[in-house]
Amino acid sequence: MRHLRPLCGHCIFWKSEDDPRSTVGHCHRYPPGVYVNPESGIVAQKFPTTDHKHWCGEWDGDKTRLDRMVRESAAVPA
Fold it and tell me: Mind giving me the DSSP string for 6-61?
């Protein structure tokens, strides 16, 4: 049996670009990283950019954690 990895485009932490035709988006699983442009010295915060068909090692096939996070993200604050 082949193990299928969840794709970025199906992850609750992935946000696509504003263009609905775009397959590029950003991973919001963790806070943005801080980057310094070595030439200009400008500091920027960025989320990792990924394609909707990329995947990561965050999900190991155990849906328990993903299901919990989906429930928590849908919960209405009291």
Answer: PPGGG-TTEEE-SSTT--EEEE-SSPPEEEE-TTT--EEEEPPEEETT---TT--S
- What sign for the dihedral angle of Cα 69, 18, 47, 8? positive
**How far is the C-alpha of 74 from the C-alpha of 58, rounded, in Å?**
21
User: Whole-model pTM?
Assistant: 0.65
Instruction: Supply the pLDDT for residue 7.
Output: 87
Contact 26, 48 (CB under 8 A): yes
- Predicted confidence at residue 24, as pLDDT, reads 95
